[in-house]
Each structure stands twice: as C-alpha cells, then as structure tokens.
Amino acid sequence: MKNKRNQELKKLKQGIYFLPNLFTTANLFAGCFSIINAIDGNYSIAAISIFVAVFLDGMDGKIARVTNAVSDFGKDYDSLSDLVSFGVAPALLFYLWGNNHLLNSILLWEKTAWLVSFFYIAATALRLARFNNQLHLKYNPYFSGLPSPAAATLVSVVVWQCELLLLTPIVSFAVLIFSIIVSAAMMVSKVPYYSFKDAQSARRIPFAKTVMIPLIFILILLEPPLVLSVMAISYLFSGPISLLLGSILKTIKKQLSSFQSNRSD
C-alpha cells in the first residue's frame, strides 16, 4: 500500500495529462459561466452554457481513453467539475428563474424551490461518487442511474422552454418541479441507461454511423430547444422502458422454459 501510494505521488509530481484536463477545465468554465449568467438574469445563455459543458464533458472522457491518459487525478477533477456544471449550475438556474417568474404567483415557491435545488445537488454528488466507485468494476455498456449530464440537460432545457414559451405560472411550476425531482431521483436510482461507450466506439465506429453525427448537429442548430427537449425526455424514459421490457422478456422466457420442462415431463 505504501509503495503504491509513493508511486501515485511520484506520478502526480511528474505532472498531469494536459489535453483531457484542458477539456475538463473548459467544462468547469462553462458551468461557472452558466451560474454567473443565471445570477444576472440571462437564463437562455445560462442554459446554453450547460449544454456546452455537457459536450465538453463527453469530449474529455473520450480523449482520455483514446490517448490512454486516464488517471485518478483526472477522474477526481472531472467529478468535481461535473458537480459544479451539472449539479450547482442547473439547480441555480431552476431556482433563480423561478424566483424571477414564479415567486409572486406560487405560494411557498421560495422554500420549496431551494429545498428541491438542494435535493438535486445532493443527488448529483451521490451519483458522481457512486460512479467513481464503480469505475474499477468490469466493463458495462450501461450506467447505473441517469447520468448527471443528461439530468442537467433535461432541467436546463425545461427552464429554457419555460423562458421561451412564456407558460402560465402553474404550468411552469408543475413542469419544473417534475423535471428536477424526477431527474434527481433517477440519478440515484439503479435504472440502467445506455452509456454509448461501446468497447470499440472510443477508437472506431462504422462508417455509416458517421452520417448521424452531423445530422444530429444540424437538427440541434435548426431548432435547439425542441430537439434538445426531445432528446433529453427520450433518454430519461429510455431507462425505465428498457428495464420494463427486460423484465417482461425475462418473465416470458421463464414461463416458456417452465412450459417446455413440463411438456418434457
């Protein structure tokens, strides 16, 4: 144990991997930029900054794997940055937007909002801590619980839609509370969500699939709020639907095997 710790300290003294940590720093910057804009009342820019942070967070992991630059320092730094960008930033965006638009219309909004915001931040921290502890386990193409970037995207895009569509206070309150509570609950759940991290995807993907990448970007640029909303909501429900279908298939297979064994008897 002592030799292992000395080796880790020696590696840290020698330096850290520059490229993946550069993207992690950019992710942290986007999260801080979102917080500042939410405080200043620029809610649309705050939401867009979180989407940028989500993109950068996806890039730093891929770059670290492709360049074989994975380290414990990078893992911890990434988690701390994610807590700011995907925990604190969306929670503050939700809270500050509601204070500006719903405080005078919804009774007990302020107390409800800050408690829900705390619940979301705590769920994000727990989700990230659990993820870090599961990294040493064998490869699994599914996340355990909703990933924090997906949860942040859902909360942010819902706030953005409320800002753009000028919904009534009651509708806005219902949609916002539902999105942030469900996102937080799904983060700490054990519902499996597809990770899009196939063993070969870090290095190569089929040529036909490369067309999907620019197509997705084009759709997002054409109608960002709508496309991001559809993507975030679809991914949110993909986990429970996949779990339900898996349970149904297991039940059917079990009944079929039981029926076949009874016939053979």
Fold blueprint:
Elements: H1 2-14, H2 18-40, H3 43-66, H4 72-101, H5 109-134, E1 142-144, H6 148-165, H7 169-187, E2 192-194, H8 212-222, H9 224-264
Antiparallel strand pairs: 1-2
Helix pairs in contact: 2-3, 2-4, 3-4, 3-6, 4-5, 4-6, 4-7, 5-7, 6-7, 6-9, 8-9
Please name the defining characteristics of this protein.
265 residues; mainly alpha; Four Helix Bundle (Hemerythrin (Met), subunit A); two-stranded antiparallel ribbon; 2 strands; globular
Domain count: the total is 1
| SS element count, helices | 9
Mean pLDDT: 82
Report the strand count. 2
- Computed CA radius of gyration, to the nearest angstrom: 21 Å
Q: Which strand order does the major sheet show?
A: 1-2
> Sheet bearing the most strands, described?
2 strands, antiparallel
Structure characterization notes:
- The protein is mainly alpha-helical and 265 residues long.
- The protein contains nine helices and two strands.
- Helix 2 runs parallel beside helix 4.
- The longest helix has 41 residues, at 224-264.
- The mean pLDDT is 82.
